[in-house]
Amino acid sequence: MTQPLKLTGIRGMIAKKMHESVQSTAQLSFFTDVDASALTAARAAWKAADIRIGYEDLVIATLGRILPAFPLFNALEADGVITPQAEINVGVAIALPGALVAPAVFDCANKDLPTIAAERASLVERAAINKLTVREMSGGTINISNLGLTRVRHFTPILNRPMTCIVGLGRIAPEPAVVDGALAIRPVMGLSLTVDHRAIDGAPAGDFLTALADALEASHPIP
């Protein structure tokens, strides 16, 4: 028989934090699809160069490029004041047995893709053995959550306060598309965005999601 789930210990802390997030912010979510052709090509090229790059790494690097133009999306809230952050520190949601953590890759705007990938891999490895630092656990300025290994394309990720924004990555699957007037099959990735509507209105949220999708669809640095 399945045992009851007790909201105590780590699970209780997560439950309390998620409840506080929903209760204390005005969360609004947006969704779009991304032609992932450039992402899959870049990942394959890095793999051919014997460097392991994940889709999350490509998204993190892209956030590092576009966020300077969207300061309210890389901001923290305290006592009703939204403060844009000078450094872009992308928190990465990592699922553990009975727990969820989101340690940060720091200063992503000033790191190349292999460095970002290596640092994210280190976070995942150390999260599994409870070796993350307090700074890594608390230093994020924006979060990403990846459900790309499931059949989920779009979802409504919950804000990790005091951040104002979280990006959700869905699965990549082949879909029909019209390219230059002809029907083609392209890999398509679901992209979700949740913002704190107290600080970010619908129009800038749409602009940010559009800019992120456009940047992900553009060519990416390859070896």
Automatic annotation (TrEMBL):
Q: Specify whether Cell wall biogenesis/degradation is a keyword of the entry.
A: no
Q: Give the transmembrane ranges.
A: none
Coiled-coil regions listed: none
Gene Ontology CC annotation, any one = cytoplasm
> Pfam families this protein is in?
2-oxoacid_dh (PF00198)
UniProt xrefs under InterPro entries: 2-oxoacid_DH_actylTfrase, 2-oxoacid_DH_E2_comp, CAT-like_dom_sf
Q: Which cofactor does it need?
A: (R)-lipoate
- Write the protein's name: 2-oxo acid dehydrogenase subunit E2
The source organism is Sandaracinobacteroides saxicola
Q: What is the lineage of its organism?
A: Bacteria, Pseudomonadati, Pseudomonadota, Alphaproteobacteria, Sphingomonadales
